[in-house]
Amino acid sequence: MKRVVLFLLAVVAVAAVIAVVVMPRGLKLIEETPRESITGTKAAIECDGNSVWVMPEKGIHESAVMLTGKWNFADYKAISFTLENLDKKPLRVTFRMTNSDKYFKSSRRSFQETVGDMYYLAPYERREVVLDFPEPLQHPDVEATLRKSPMRYTPYSSEFGFASYSGDLTDVRYIVFQATYLALFETSHENGWRVSDLKVVEGKRKVNPKEVQLSHDEFFPFIDCYGQYKYNEWKNKIHSDEDLQKAREVEEADLASHVGPTDRNKYGGWASGPRQEATGRFYFKKVDGKWWFVDPEGCLWWSHGAVRVTPSSALTPLDDRREFFENLPEEGSEFAQFYYTHDLLLKPYYTARNIKETYDFSSANCYRKYGKDYKQVYGELAHRRLQSWGLNTIANSSDKDICLMSKTPYIERLEVLAKEIKGSGGTWWRFMDPWDPSFKQCIIDQLKAREKELKDPYLVGLFVDNELKWGDESFLAATIAKNPSTLKAKHELIKHYKAKYKGDIKALNAVWGTSFASWQALLQNEQELPKQSHADLVEFNDLVIHKYFRNCREVFNEYAPGLLYLGCRFAGSNKKAIVIGAQYCDAISHNFYRFSLEDYVQPEGIDKPLIVGEFHFGTRDRGMFHHSLIEVANQEERAKAYEAYVRSALEHPNIVGTHWHQFSDQATTGRFDGENFNVGFTDVCDTPYYEMVEALRNVGYDMYNIRANAK
Length: 711
Known about the structure:
This protein is of the alpha+beta class. Helices cover 27% and strands 21% of the residues.
């Protein structure tokens, strides 16, 4: 229900004239919500007037505050609030309004969300946010159709300036702020975070853009034959094949005038820097207190690169949404071939989701731009671009044929797909049983399949896996304990505890508070173990982590001796996994989405080189609907953020490289999981973002001097 809020009348008499000043009316949500309807998750909260102070529990990075009520915002024009990061660590805050408690029980796309978006706050940053409510949708069926599609953000999201909008502001039940401290390995918190001055303001809403007023038949299709959004214009948008050729000519002139830094050898190493032993392979060495790669010729080398160097960056699903796309080619026609191109590394993700039809807009545009031998032309151009832009690494998930041109050093990634541990979750795949013979055999098979790469001096090293779910200090062991008895790891768990308790199941029961009749009963158990088992589970959890990394190390030693094992590309993770992994890997690899690495500190006792496997910044100013995991205002700000991030890495003694995710934009309508980010150095039509190119050169041409002179 709408609540009446008193407003201030200021009466001023001037020259016998009474002027009445009416302040804007609004509903102050924190101030007027009953205290018991404001709750915290994994945090202590304190309400003070019109603000809520949130202090996460010890050791917890994620926390939330929720207001529960029944609000009708039909007569309001905007919602606004102030966010404050009171801590020394970067903070990510996700804001949501919703009318369904499914938000707290299901995945991010399974609830009816009203308004939502994400904000990154630097240490001690205070930010005021205003989200304008659009008019009621003239054609809500259009928005409903868009929301059924696997796109992270839709055209409506982009137009309205927030992640999603259901069109129903008359029945809001929950207002939620979820915060995650990007704390790396530090779990202590100084002062938490605060949300204040949360209010909705009465007034007339902005008129919806013309394209949002279109009916279903008028709006669809909304993607042109080049894979671009039809209804907006922006700098360097392609309208014809002639535009593609003009863009090619502009870039050729740019490349000719920027041939690349002059102090580099053929690997992009520091030719004028201090020489080390040349072994014919890449290796790590600490020089003057800073970690470096050393390239095959003995030059110091720092990895400045990009993930997914491939013409197939903008491949998108067509299943149940062909109406989105204008002039899709007929089967048997010249451009029908791009129904069947694919990315070798990502193809299993499409298959796992039962996606049957796709179209590769970026490859189709390269075909238009470079001709029938576009793959070869694109590959050659990729190497020229990298050198001209001050980059020296083709990072993982890139086109194998481009890597094997042996003109730019490259790093590949392989994934262990073996016997799964049921219930181990993860963003991409479940955790694999490291005791199952299929685990090692999978790595062996993939190394054997890369025989040519393993002999190539341009191969820097290999990652194994990506963003595994390590959970907390007992997660893997607790999950194994609930698995069926056929799991090899569960037999190892029984073996471990049988040895610890000297074969006496009663002794284990006494500690755990359980009543297993025998070790066989524990083996057959698939229920959650009681809290009293935690200490023992932590102990076995360590053994699981050791076994995982030891397997990888042993296979590398036998089948790829001398090749760098570059870790598992952590995303988050608990400290124990990192500490144990560091014992086996040649380097730690971590995907860090943040604005700076200035505060990066390795766990106590660890001094290893670190590779940043992924980072990026994005915006919505040139036709893309989703800004990326970290939003900036425009392309100029994206360029500034890139340069600042890489400089912070170059100045850190442990960091030996940064890999941008990714070389080209994702599809406007999303990839297999809906990601449709503006994250490229080039767009869907293979046109460079020259603001980014300038930033790449600014930091890339001078990167060895920056690193050498950093304190």
